[in-house]
Amino acid sequence: MLKLFYQTELVEAGCDEAGRGCLAGPVFAAAVILPEGFYHEKLNDSKQVNEEDRYELRSFIEKHAISYQVASVDHEEIDRINILNASFKAMHLAIEKLKTKAKFLIIDGNRFTKYKRTPHQCIIKGDSEYASIAAASILAKTYRDDFMRNLHPDFPQYKWITNKGYGTAEHRKAIEEFGLTPYHRRSFSLTSNQLELDM
């Protein structure tokens, strides 16, 4: 049973990201403020939920959350500022866009760059402990999956429709064979000899 709030004195948003370990595409993040009494039996860390249930949960979260936002930072900025800073920036962008302003943040993981003067608490495996972080993980994951799925028709050989840009054996093999697309992260270890894709 996920806990609803870390504290109850201040309006609290849960934050998480998706796509940090990918070889291609943006990193996405979400911030979610949930109401008292929010519950869905399938809600959990997005990695523990199958794809069909994730999309069911997304609709439920978007319908019932007090406020939610999703934001992304693209592969070029990831290469410029590194993936950790890009993840924090995506979270900041999502928090900034919330219609209801969060006064306290709970963040999945063990590190975070402070957002303005808003107090926060980092929680390791927070997406399997707190409902708002789990909800943020569901939104970030499904929005990112949609983004990669939409790129698939232009670059079908990389199988982004299934691997979503993660470094699977088939994805790495396609990079070796076809080179890099404009969406690959150059700062990541992609191949033994990083070849450019002829466009």
CATH topology: Nucleotidyltransferase, domain 5
Percentage of residues in helical conformation: 25-40%
Overall pLDDT confidence: 94
Continuous helix count: 6
**Largest sheet entry:** 5 strands, mixed
User: Can you tell me the CATH superfamily?
Assistant: Ribonuclease H-like superfamily/Ribonuclease H
Secondary-structure-based class equals: alpha/beta
Describe this structure in words.
- The chain is α/β, with parallel strands linked by helices.
- Helices cover 36% and strands 15% of the residues.
- The protein has one domain: Nucleotidyltransferase, domain 5, CATH 3.30.420.10.
- Strands 3-2-1-4-5 form a 5-stranded mixed sheet, sandwiched between helices.
- Helix 1 packs across helix 4 and helix 2 crosses helix 3.
- The protein is globular, with a radius of gyration of 17 Å.
- One of its GO terms (biological process) is mismatch repair.
- InterPro entries: RNase_HII (IPR022898), RNase_HII/HIII (IPR001352), RNase_HII/HIII_dom (IPR024567), RNaseH-like_sf (IPR012337), RNaseH_sf (IPR036397).
- Belongs to the RNase HII family.
- It comes from Niastella yeongjuensis.
